[in-house]
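--- STAGE predict ---
source: upstream dedup step, 1 unique chain passed
mode: sequence only
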Amino acid sequence: MKKLILCAFVALAPITTLRAAIAVDSEPREITKLEDSIVYPISERIHGYDGRVVLDALIDTNGAVVRVNCLYATNWDFKNAAVTAMWKMRFTPAVSDGRHTEVWITRTINFNLTGPPEKFVAGGGIPGLG
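--- STAGE serialize ---
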């Protein structure tokens, strides 16, 4: 049974890009977890800010991220952290009719300060803020 991956309509003046939906036999799956690559921005953590970023990423036939577009970001610091993490990701390739195929995926990353510090900053937190 084929699954339908619906890709987003992105409108950025003056450029408009429409990504068509394609049918795939299997969707790309994360090999490296996005959550493990994200570093909570220090400036936002110090001020107690939460944020949200929505990204589109093009996954190629080898499972590599080859393009990242930011659709929404609370601010530049959250955007930078999310985009940096997305570039580190690896996926299994999507398969359509028995062949690997490029697909766009959309990921929403929510930054919030409800977990332990070691979850947010590589190396186990910010010295002096413990």
